[in-house]
Write a structure and sequence with these properties.
This is Molybdopterin converting factor small subunit. There is one protein chain. This protein is of the alpha+beta class. Helices cover 22% and strands 33% of the residues. It has one domain: Ubiquitin-like (UB roll) (Roll), CATH 3.10.20. The chain has a five-stranded mixed sheet with strand order 2-1-9-6-7. It starts with a strand and ends in a 10-residue tail after the last strand.
Amino acid sequence: METEVTVYGPLRSATGAKTITLEWAGGTVADAVAALVDAYPRSGPHLYDGDVIRPSVRVSINGERAALEAPVRENASLTVFPAVQGGDGSR
């Protein structure tokens, strides 16, 4: 299945573009994130901590925030916001 994926932050340098078309088998949001990393390995450190998707990674389907277990339907558009690194708390 083909899914349009828009990425932000450091994921743009990993994919080479703000919006890409992801070819994958389909499934859940978590499966889509895994397929994104398979297609663009440099995105992995921004999305995963070991084998687990980082808790601060956010994905939306057609503009609505989606849980990792949510199904991704044909012709859906995904937006992926990578993990955000905070400051050191010294302020």
